[in-house]
Design a protein that fits this description.
Low-confidence stretches: none
Mean pLDDT: 86
Number of helices: 3
Strand content: over 45%
Length: 199
């Protein structure tokens, strides 16, 4: 029953989250849709007349791409093993997370600060527990919850609204700021049956 092409009829989202990334050279805005079901989230990119919505169906280890080109709607699905990827990322990077004990209000939400330090990265992450949505609670329904420290879980169960990071892997450290610039309620639903299956 593990057919990657099986897709649920629809995915509904309750919030639109816009992340602005500044890395010194350029500023990029990424659009995400979050769901109160916690089992999936989506990214959306728009270029010219193409809208691509990619649903990360974490609970079922699948990724579904919905493409709308001038009203011509197609979709494709593939399997992804999120559990191993996330666990590997956490184990490999040997990241330590320490609460800073400080709070900050971002977009009206109270956030707790965490210092993050790994081999090639360090910085501060600001996380709120008040938004009612998160990216990846579904990750933490997996075996990850047993193997990681409680600070990881606090970050995962909450919603990260800002990250000030320094990439120390190169000779010249590079700072990257990621900040949620808007978090708005939405009622966006993507209906699989509106899209013709490519693969």
């Amino acid at each position: 029953h593990d057919n990657p092409y099986l897709v649920q009829d629809s995915f509904s989202f309750s919030h639109k989250y816009v992340l602005q990334i500044q890395d010194g050279k350029r500023t990029t805005d990424l659009e995400y849709f979050l769901s109160q079901s916690d089992n999936y989230f989506a990214t959306q990119t728009t270029s010219n007349n193409n809208i691509t919505t990619t649903v990360m169906d974490v609970a079922n280890s699948k990724m579904h791409m919905y493409m709308d080109t001038n009203g011509d709607k197609t979709r494709m699905s593939m399997k992804l093993n999120f559990k191993n990827t996330v666990k590997h990322a956490i184990d490999e990077t040997k990241v330590t997370i320490t609460p800073t004990g400080t709070t900050k209000t971002i977009l009206g939400y109270e956030c707790n600060g965490y210092n993050v330090k790994g081999e090639d990265v360090e910085g501060t992450v600001w996380v709120t527990q008040q938004a009612g949505v998160s990216f990846a609670k579904a990750f933490y329904k997996t075996d990850l919850s047993q193997s990681t420290d409680p600070n990881w879980q606090k970050i995962a169960k909450g919603l990260t609204l800002e990250m000030d990071m320094v990439d120390t892997s190169k000779r010249k450290p590079k700072s990257i700021n990621m900040k949620c610039i808007s978090l708005d309620k939405t009622s966006f639903t993507i209906n699989s049956n509106d899209y013709k299956k490519l693969m």
